[in-house]
Specification:
mainly alpha, two-stranded antiparallel ribbon, 2 strands, about 0% strand
Length: about 400
């Protein structure tokens, strides 16, 4: 081992940068993405997009985020996290402007790709900084980052539905682009962390020799099958069940609210008792709810189940990035989180496209059951590969040399 482990319970607060810019930028970008997601049914109704075309645009954005996260995340380990945060914000603004001007599928696809790149650049940089800034409070800080991230999904849908009702379906994207523009001064106040940097300029490929990290990736993948299903099926199924646009927006907001509220507390508990247990419990619960989504009838039943599921998500939400963090050294955090982000968006893209096709041909019941079964298979594999991760018990999180997990 060429670096000493970093024990969260043994280190005090590091003199790191303010995390506020990282929280706020992710909040704004999530609100922008949520506005796009909430109005997917409007693109179908106003522009005549098919279910497959909507799934393709979703998958295109997620695929772009995949490439950006893999290729650019290691730059944050070399001290460039603030630059990545600013670049992500500017690309997000450009993506929203293009979506606002959409008149055909290709415009929509370009806008989603730009926004996908924005997320692929900004997310790993924010996670790296939040993880290493204060190891003794990492769970709380990761939970706060998740809370701000999800808070964007709480505010975005309600705002999008209101703006759509007032000014038409293009108005929310223009307004969100303007609001993101107001965050530019905040982005320029972001500073790099003071933790160990990757001076060897390593790529991410050597991390694939880390068995425990691979297991964490399987658990991450299981959860993002659920996310892909939610984005490509849930909103359109609400529309199919007779929900008006304002009802869809309000439902997404109410359903996401418990995640935003519970995530900081969930991060503290995951750090105290072990991120592996928390992550597996959360994803297993989501898999069970996924199956139930396809078995209940009526709009309100679907909303109530979604709210119940989001409570479990909130408690477990920070545990997946914490589990990834526990498998690698301090100077590889962004590279590992970038791979995790790539897996998140890659799996969500495949799930969105595949489950949209299943939904088109076989309906929501079959699509949700397929999603739930797929999640459980991935979760079982991840559980087996990460068995040693709970050996730390209450000492979670420990950041170890990647070679220890091989």
């Amino acid at each position: 081992m060429d670096k000493d482990p970093i024990m969260a319970t043994e280190h005090g607060t590091r003199d790191g940068p303010s995390l506020v810019p990282y929280y706020l930028i992710l909040f704004g970008m999530s609100a922008g993405l949520a506005s796009v997601m909430t109005l997917l049914a409007e693109f179908r109704n106003e522009l005549g997009f098919s279910q497959f075309e909507i799934g393709l645009s979703v998958a295109g954005g997620l695929g772009a985020a995949f490439v950006a996260a893999v290729a650019l995340a290691p730059q944050a380990d070399r001290g460039r996290a603030p630059v990545m945060l600013r670049s992500g914000l500017l690309l997000g603004i450009a993506g929203l402007v293009v979506v606002a001007m959409t008149s055909n599928l290709w415009h929509m696809l370009v806008g989603r790709v730009l926004f996908g790149i924005a997320f692929g650049v900004a997310h790993p940089a924010a996670r790296r900084t939040v993880i290493v800034a204060d190891p003794s409070n990492m769970g709380r800080n990761v939970g706060r980052l998740g809370a701000f991230d999800v808070a964007g999904f709480v505010v975005g849908p309600a705002a999008a539905a209101l703006l759509n009702a007032v000014g038409g379906f293009r108005t929310p994207f223009w307004v969100m682009a303007i609001l993101l523009t107001l965050l530019i001064p905040t982005a320029w106040r972001a500073r790099p962390d003071t933790a160990t940097k990757d001076t060897q300029r390593r790529g991410p490929t050597d991390l694939f020799h880390n068995r425990r990290l691979i297991g964490a990736f399987f658990i991450v993948a299981a959860y993002f099958v659920f996310i892909g299903a939610f984005e490509s099926i849930w909103v359109l199924e609400m529309d199919h069940r007779g929900a008006d646009q304002w009802q869809i927006g309000a439902s997404v907001t109410v359903a996401a609210l418990p995640i935003s509220i519970l995530a900081p507390w969930g991060g503290v508990l995951a750090q105290r008792y072990g991120a592996r247990r928390w992550a597996v419990g959360m994803v297993g619960t989501c898999a069970a709810f996924s199956t139930l989504f396809g078995l209940v009838e009526g709009m309100m039943s679907l909303v109530i189940l979604t709210i119940a599921c989001s409570c479990a998500e909130g408690i477990g939400f920070p545990s997946a990035p914490m589990l990834v963090s526990a498998a690698v050294a301090e100077d590889r955090q962004a590279a590992a989180q970038g791979l995790a982000s790539a897996i998140e968006v890659g799996v969500a893209a495949v799930a969105a496209l595949g489950l949209a096709a299943i939904y088109d041909t076989s309906g929501d019941t079959v699509a949700w059951i397929v999603a739930g079964v797929t999640m459980m298979v991935l979760l079982i594999i991840g559980w087996n590969l990460t068995k040693e991760s709970d050996d730390y018990g209450p000492k979670m999180v420990q950041l170890t040399d990647p070679g220890n997990g091989s």
